[in-house]
Amino acid sequence: MTATPDVDASRLASPDLLRSVFRRHAAGVAVITARGEHGPVGFTATSLSSVSAEPPMLSFGIGTGSSCWPTLSGATYVGVHLLGEHQRELAATFARSGADRFGPPTAWREGPEGVPVLDDVPAWLTCRITARVPAGDHRIVLAEVLRGHHAGPGRPLLYHQGRFTGLRD
Predict the structure, then answer these.
(1) pLDDT bracket for residue 101 (50, 70, 90)
(2) Distance (Å, rounded) from C-alpha 141 to C-alpha 130?
(3) Is the distance from CB of 125 to CB of 79 less than 8 angstroms?
(4) pLDDT tens per residue across span 34-49
(5) Where do the structural domains in the chain lie, given as residue ranges?
(6) Which of 82, 59, 92, 93 is nearest to 167 (CA)?
(7) What's the CATH fold of domain 19-157?
């Protein structure tokens, strides 16, 4: 049976409408990191997208009110980490405001271009930021991929209906 959209029940655009719709959209979970003036910074992102194969480029969004934005607004390089379903707590830590994101139990080391690289992730990339595009209360960051590794452990972590979850077959 096919459900017919109820166009008469549609609502005008609002932040709540957008959030409600995107809660139904499953998204991969990444952590973006950068070297800051006062230590490493990082945040959980579900807006990561592949942009171009030639040259290899990606994008992600960050709110200008984020505690990481002052560092990202001037950073040259970022680390991009795809999280595995075994890393729900790590995703929650990097999503939580005021958390000590790089303190124990987070395991990381300095990687290429000085960016923090998280341990035990399925895949990571080091990227050079090429543009920051204004988009409402966010910026879309475009970055060229420089180096990476894709043979880490785990199946992908997803964000759906307001929670972190694993991929089901």
Answers:
(1) very high
(2) 8
(3) yes
(4) 999 999 999 999 999 9
(5) 19-157
(6) 82
(7) Pnp Oxidase; Chain A (2.30.110)
